[in-house]
Amino acid sequence: MHSASCDGVSGGVARYEDAVRHVVGILGRNISCDYDSTEKRGSEFIARGLISMLKVRRAREHMDAIDELINGAKTFYEDARTSENGRSTSWEHCYRVFRDARIDPSPDCDYLSLHLAFYLASWGMYRGSSFLLQKDYKVLTPIVEKILKPEYDCLFGVACVSLRESEVQERYTNVYDDIAEHFRPIRNEVAGREVASSVSPVLITKILMGTLGCVPAYDRFFQDGVATYKVTTQEYSPEFVLRLVDFYEEHNDRLEEARRGMRTEDLIYPQMKLLDMGFWQVGFEKDAGDAK
Questions:
Q1: Spatial distance between the Cα atoms of 73 and 71, rounded to a whole number of angstroms
Q2: Are residues 97 and 221 in the same domain?
Q3: Are residues 50 and 194 in the same domain?
Q4: Could you give the CA distance from residue 83 to residue 164 in angstroms, rounded to a whole number?
Q5: Same structural domain, 194 and 234
Q6: Which end of the chain is more exposed for a tag (fewer CB within 10 A), N or C?
Q7: Domain check: are 44 and 103 in the same one?
Q8: pLDDT at position 28, please?
Q9: Residue range(s) defining the domain that contains residue 54
Q10: Would you say residue 283 has pLDDT above 80?
Q11: What is the pLDDT of residues 179-227, one digit of tens each?
Q12: What is the pLDDT of residues 226-263, one digit of tens each?
């Protein structure tokens, strides 16, 4: 018996003839598998060939994803430049005032709450089914006060590589949970009952994108965009964020080259905003194409 490393094969296969049956459609996993070199040398050859083909296909898919992501981000960005007073600029207004507030010794949280509310309204968070629709903008003020705490400075415009740091991850988890805890009793009050489900990650990530720029807004079009190229999970989770980090770091040179052209006046778009715009546009265009 000989041992061989079967990169790209999943599911605990023990021989190459098993790998032939399992390898198709499986990408990006590595295990070791044993095989009998005296049996079915043809299967060994086929399995190795399939693995190589899958690796090539995965590389091509990633290149397609990068091309479409960058094109999508540029389309989104240019729309904000050409559409006067378009909703694409709502994020810029919100992000800018929160940036300035972080260095203001006496920030106007009422003013910031108004900005946050209008940004959220621009991006669908005040639809008829939303509990926020039943409240005025001041319901957001405690969240604004939490986000402005110095302990969350490390999250503002954070680079993807920094999200690997345990302290940064802890701060991110804390602010996410703080927002969820703030909204839970308010949502129960509006519903007139205790709602069992978690507060929507779409709402929380939209708030974090608008105020800190540290995570994409995980709405339907963004989900469809990342699902198109299997970049990360469709369900929001901490793993979702780290897989986005992996993706950005793997293609850092091309993404950073594109991002350098995305700034307006004194505002630099953070890395997570590029991912947010790009994959949202991919999902939006896919939905528009499917509807035809």
A1: 6
A2: yes
A3: no
A4: 36
A5: yes
A6: C
A7: no
A8: 44
A9: 2-58
A10: yes
A11: 999 999 999 999 999 999 999 999 999 999 999 999 999 999 999 998 8
A12: 888 888 877 888 888 899 999 999 999 999 999 998 98
> Do the domain assignments include residue 79?
no
Lowest mean pLDDT of 126-130, 227-231, 272-276, name the range: 227-231
Give yes or no: residues 50 and 102 share one domain: no
Under a CB-based contact definition with an 8 Å cutoff, are residues 139 and 120 in contact?
no
Q: How confident is the model at residue 65 (pLDDT cuts 50, 70, 90)?
A: confident
* Token code pair at residue 167: 């302290």
Residues 43 and 126 in one domain: no
Count of domains forming the chain: 2
Residue 71 lies in a domain: no
∠ Cα 152 155 159 (to 5°)? 160
**Is 77 part of any domain?**
no
Same domain, 133 and 53: no
* pTM for the whole structure: 0.78
For the chain, the C-alpha Rg in angstroms (whole number) is 23
Q: State the pLDDT at residue 58.
A: 55
Residue 97: exposed, middle, or buried by beta-carbon count in 10 A (0-12, 13-18, 19+)?
buried
Distance CA 183, CA 188 (A): 9
SS (H, E, C) the chain: CEEEEEECCCCCCCCHHHHHHHCCCCCCCEEEEEECCCCCHHHHHHHHHHHHHHHHHHHHHHHHHHHHHHHHHHHHHHHHHHCCCCCHHHHHHHHHHHHHHCCCCCCCHHHHHHHHHHHHHHCCCCCCCCHHHHCCHHHHHHHHHHHCCHHHHHHCCCCHHHHHCHHHHHHHHHHHHHHHHHHHHHHHHHHCCCCCCCCCHHHHHHHHHHHCCCCCCCCHHHHHHHHHCCCCCCCCCHHHHHHHHHHHHHCHHHHHHHHCCCEECCEECCHHHHHHHHHHHHHHHHHHHHHC
- 155 and 286 both lie in a single domain: yes
